[in-house]
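Minutes, project huddle
Topic: does the predicted pose make sense with adenosine monophosphate bound?
PN asked that the exact inputs be recorded in the minutes so nobody has to dig through chat later. Recorded below.
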Amino acid sequence: MLNDICEVKISFSFMKTKLISAVGSIALDWLELPNGVNGDTLGGSLTYFTRSAGVLAPVSVIGVIGSDFPEAGISLFKNYAKNIDDLQIKNGPSFRWGGKYHDNWEDRTTLYTELGVFETFSPEMSEINRKSPLIYLGNIHPAIQLDVINQIHSENTLIICDTMNLWINTTKKDLDKLLRSINVLLLNESEAQLLTGQETISDSAKAIHDIGPNDVIIKQGGSGATLFSKDHSFHAPVFPIDLLTDPTGAGDTFGGGLMAALSNDYSLSEGVIWGNAAASFCVEGFGLEGLKKMTLESFEERVEKIKTLL
Ligand code: AMP
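Predicted holo structure (tokens), as shared on screen:
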């Protein structure tokens, strides 16, 4: 399965695009799905992000893999990232995560998390990433996300951050510090409720605005996603797919589409549409397989379709 993932070698002809520097996990996943499909696949927040954003914009990755990481996985980063100077390869096992979905396809139980080389990961950012105009903090321990922020050299960097319930439950102090240092927070509906204790997404967004970020994007699974800025909100529906096959990585793939829109100088609202369009490819296949269908042309078609549904 892994060998299949990197079929397309893309060429970088992003003329007026801004560089996106992204940090996150790079993993070997084990997935158990409600349709009875179980299996190994390449995963991690940075992997889904790079595969999605890399079709549309230049991505520079900050992450770590172990010495056991498969060649096909390394090829994905070589093919879809413009810069891999800050991709560390360390002696030891790669990060491994196992997840089992419940019958509703939304809730999932973590079967295991083996940190491996992530346990001692300390991002060392080269100048190109320190000066990047756009930083994406993919789902990873908030202390690592803060470490990346502390290495930024530019005052005009836009910082967009994703997180998950694990960090809201276990590292609230680091997370609160992080929230005061970022521009946009990306999270799903249940995480927003968990973080703020509010019932509705608009009340959650208000509470998050009060902590720090000017903009909050709440992902609502099959119902799309909503951007809450301080003075307006914008909702975009999902692209209608035929069959949900595997929701893993949809959030990170959404982040890739969103950041690519910003890299191309579009607004956050357009980014919500691009995020939904990108995520629709992800959920159509097991692991990263659905994203094989995501090309510039197929992506644009899905963006246009979503716009007809607004
Ligand atoms: P998503 O479905 O968008 O939440 O992303 C799933 C990906 O997140 C999987 O490929 C996992 O490898 C990765 N992941 C799961 N748990 C963690 C964690 N604690 N830290 C970083 N990445 C994780």
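Observations noted during the meeting:
- Residues 25, 27, 29, 43-45, 97, 113, 139-140, 166, 248-252 surround adenosine monophosphate (CB under 6 Å).
- The chain has a mean pLDDT of 94.
No decisions taken; revisit at the next huddle.
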